[in-house]
Design brief:
mainly alpha
Length: 120
């Protein structure tokens, strides 16, 4: 799981920065970038849920998952005004993506710290 977490973090950094660069060069790729980064991060959340016992969880992960749950519930409740909800997600999604990448970074640091403790 340690190597997966490191690879996951760097793929997120590459996807986020690459998507930002592509969207600056050609804004028509914006929707693809949202689905690419978001899909990768949802896959990461699912894998973390499946293999929860194999890694050390950062405290922010639970807050992040609760936030995702509330965003999902808000989307279901506000079905009549989905264009307004989608407009809100347009601005909130990049913040959630950076937040998730920072959580993965902190978890990698935590794994590194734990492995150094075991060496002593």
């Amino acid at each position: 799981m340690k190597s997966y977490k490191l690879i996951d973090f760097w793929i997120q950094v590459i996807l986020i920065s690459g998507s930002l660069l592509c969207c600056l060069l050609d804004p028509s790729y914006l929707l693809y970038a949202y689905f690419l980064v978001g899909g990768w991060q949802l896959l990461g959340c699912l894998l973390h849920a499946i293999y929860k016992q194999h890694y050390y969880e950062a405290r922010d992960r639970k807050n992040y998952l609760k936030t995702l749950l509330w965003v999902f519930i808000l989307g279901v409740v506000t079905i009549p005004v989905w264009p307004l909800y989608g407009f809100g997600l347009f601005f909130i999604s990049p913040l959630l993506a950076v937040w998730y990448a920072s959580i993965c970074y902190h978890e990698n640091k935590l794994l590194e710290y734990k492995s150094l403790i075991h060496l002593k």
